[in-house]
Amino acid sequence: MKTSNVFSTGRFGELIRQFVLHNYQSLLMGMLVVLGLSTIITGIFKIMGGVSQTSDSFHFALFLFGYFILGGFYISSAFSSFRSKEKAFGYLMTPGSVLEKYIVEFIFYPLLFVVLYPVLFMLGYELSTFIASVIRSNPFQPFDMIGFTDQVFYLRDFEIVEGEIREVSSTNVVGLGFSIIFAIAMMFFLGAVSFSKYPLLKTLFFSVVYVGVCTWLVYFFMGYLEWGRHFRLTSEDAFFSPIGSEGVDNLTKVTFFGLFLLLFGIVFMVVSFMKLKEKEV
After folding, report:
1. Pairing relation of β-strands 164-172 and 154-161?
2. pTM for this one?
3. Which DSSP helix (H) or strand (E) runs through 175?
4. Could you count the other beta carbons within 10 Å of the beta carbon of residue 110?
5. Which of 42, 47, 117, 253 is most buried by a 10 A CB count?
6. How many C-beta atoms surround the C-beta of residue 122 within 10 A?
7. pLDDT tens digits, one per residue of 76-94
8. Domain range for residue 255?
9. Can you say how many angstroms the Cα of residue 221 is from the centroid of all Cα atoms in its chain?
């Protein structure tokens, strides 16, 4: 197979241009909605809150809630042409390879949202702080979102030394956070290319079923069949010791789960590409 049949810079650039021309209004509107919602919602809590809001981590919970809820809605709208047979036929007939079309959808849906949402939320948060400081009759100390986010990126261990609580170690969990976000984003992306109707609801349904089955299997093998006791899965020299052994440090545990979730995301990515290729055929 010729390389040009797989990826062509000219065709790919044309697909990018075509997508932007057809969707720039929706993209701009979506960014304004995210910025507006983050400004209004966080602003309401700042105006109604007390003088000192430095320990109010509820705003960070709002950030995470919006990340996954809005992300689910937006990423599930990828491959919108597959929602009707007429549009699907026109999309499949558009000049471009499967790889080129896949990359375009990947850039403008999971990648764009994962990168742009934190920026828009932080801008809205800072804007709401300025507005609240103008509207409120009394000065207030807002929650330091950026500083708190930096703290969340580290898993810290403490111990009591000479009657004082001291930090003995800290583990960076940025990689684990990225793996979680990547796996969830690609899960919704897979649902978008797999389901022509109600992709968000169907993705959530099958995800809940899958997690439920996996949880039951873990309980069945570890609890009912007592594999955990018979095979000593929590001993320090066991293969799966990072999930339960007290002898394993936080870095090993974080790396284990990070790579595990990253693998899930890669599997979702490959399967979504194969689903698109299947539709092209």
Report:
1. antiparallel
2. 0.85
3. helix 174-194
4. 27
5. 42
6. 15
7. 999 988 888 777 787 878 8
8. 157-171+184-281
9. 30
